[in-house]
Design a protein that fits this description.
The protein is mainly β and 495 residues long. 7% of the residues lie in helices and 40% in strands.
Length: 495
């Protein structure tokens, strides 16, 4: 065991010529207390610097459930990294990479220090957040290390390596606050970075993939241009490479938002629906075609995710556990012609399962009303659907809804599947919130899914978002249809 000052000298000597292969963690052994680290939330009561150390004189100690600390570290996009931490007791280490959280748990062998490793790919990120958290008992962490590891882990990473990093030099990256990075040359004239940005901070005159992370989505269109009898689809890699269509899927020239348009004259639908759509379908495989869209036997696979209350066998097969979908959008147009029971309604977000829909989130505005309503539908397997009004009412002949949402009004929705332990059982609940531009939040009552069909071992889920028309009375009017502009779209999952 080397003293801390000797380890520092050895690190300099051994690191010459290898600095490009390492990511710098500040104060990795806590010899300077919490310098470089951040205690998360209210975790200070359960988090402390300990004088029981593996190396040097100090380590970090967590003694309670709320205990957690983290640090932002600069990385190179599209690379594989291995995080190594020595842990004494039962605890977790993890990395937050963009939308994904990855974790590895320590074995907890009494008073022995054990190395715990976690391999991840940085994808498009230039900063990742590494953290440590509590499992049980008193747990200590020491000697954090982060370095490049082997070959790229996914098709998504390979795509970023080929396109984002080609011909670029990554020396000189500087770490700032979490989620923020700058190059020294960019700090000289920040106004240049703002040129070409809309009031919403999005770029105009670029394809949607320049403003939105579309690496884990595919697109369904309301047309059948290849005449194969099915609605056309655009897969992940084409979306990543800047695919757009001026009729259905494009960047708005004013806001920079992502426009989804479904004209009523559209005629192509999917095999399982009579309604046309311009809609994204979540694909956790991120372009890795060795992973099927869904498994041949109907079980979960790495392209889809499961409930937190699903059996452990299902979690092991799935690409994620639980999930959050956040969107900021404006509904620009809804249909005005057709069946009175169907006009004016469009689905703006979904949680789809193997055979049913956990959630269909609707916006509806009748032609006679100035404002629209928001509600959702939940399918209970083969039982009747449950409808939940959030803003206004879903009726076919309602008056103008109080506090409704107008066309072109910007608002947000947040869909979350969260779990907690109650009575010794892990329970999963569905949360759906609508957030107005002034910050007002309208929240539906949480829906308990613990005992539902969606917690079964052979169930799986995926998010959908876009303009899924709910008016199939095709009138072939060129100017009637549904149009939605998204200003933000983010999906995330745990493990």
């Amino acid at each position: 065991m080397y003293p801390s000052h000797l380890r520092f000298v050895l690190a300099i000597l051994c690191g010459l010529g290898q600095q490009a292969n390492a990511a710098v963690i500040k104060n990795p052994g806590f010899e300077s207390g919490w310098e470089g680290w951040r205690i998360v939330g209210s975790a200070s009561a359960d988090t402390a610097i300990s004088e029981v150390a593996r190396d040097g004189l100090k380590s970090a100690k967590i003694t309670g459930r709320s205990g957690r600390f983290e640090q932002c570290v600069v990385v190179h996009p599209g690379r594989d990294y291995e995080l190594t931490v020595f842990v004494r007791g039962k605890g977790k280490i993890g990395a937050i990479v963009g939308k994904r959280t990855l974790e590895s748990e320590a074995p907890g062998h009494g008073k022995d220090w054990a190395p715990v490793r976690l391999t991840f790919n940085s994808m498009a990120e230039r900063e990742v957040r590494i953290f440590a958290s509590f499992v049980s008992g008193d747990v200590r962490f020491d000697s954090f290390g982060l370095a490049l590891s082997g070959a790229y882990a996914s098709q998504k990473a390979r795509w970023y390596q080929a396109t984002e990093m080609s011909g670029r030099e990554d020396k000189g990256l500087q770490s700032g606050d979490c989620g923020r990075w700058v190059r020294p040359s960019e700090t000289v004239d920040r106004s240049r970075a703002k040129r070409g940005l809309s009031p919403y901070g999005l770029r105009i005159g670029v394809p949607p993939s320049e403003n939105f992370d579309l690496t884990d989505w595919k697109l369904t269109l309301p047309v059948d241009r290849d005449q194969d009898g099915r609605a056309d689809e655009i897969l992940e890699e084409d979306l990543m490479n800047g695919w757009s269509d001026p009729a259905y899927f494009y960047t708005d020239p004013v806001t920079g938002g992502l426009v989804f348009r479904t004209p009523q004259r559209a005629s192509a639908t999917t095999a399982t629906s009579d309604y046309p759509r311009t809609e994204l379908r979540e694909m956790l495989r991120a372009g890795d075609l060795s992973i099927a869209t869904r498994s041949w036997n109907g079980m979960p696979n790495k392209n889809n995710w499961v409930l937190p209350s699903a059996p452990e066998a299902a979690k092991a097969k799935a690409g994620g556990v639980g999930g959050t979908l956040q969107a900021t959008l404006a509904v620009n147009q809804v249909t005005r012609v057709g069946d009175p029971a169907k006009i004016g309604r469009v689905i703006i977000g979904q949680i789809h399962a193997k055979n049913h829909e956990v959630l269909r989130l609707y916006y509806r505005k009748l032609p006679t009303n100035r404002l629209g309503s928001i509600y959702y539908a939940h399918e209970r397997g083969d039982l009747d659907e449950v409808y939940v009004d959030i803003i206004g009412d879903r009726g076919d002949f309602i008056s103008n809804p109080k506090d409704g949402i107008a066309l072109d009004e910007v608002f947000s929705y947040e869909v979350r599947l969260e779990s907690d332990v109650s009575g010794g059982e892990r329970r999963t609940k569905l949360f759906v919130d609508i957030i107005r531009d002034n910050g007002t939040r309208s929240a539906a009552k949480p829906l308990d899914l613990t005992e539902s069909v969606y917690a079964d071992e052979n169930e799986f889920m995926y998010f959908k978002a876009g303009a899924y028309s709910q008016n199939d009375g095709f009138s072939h009017h060129d100017h009637d249809g549904d149009q939605i502009t998204f200003l933000k779209l983010e999906n995330s999952h745990g493990r």
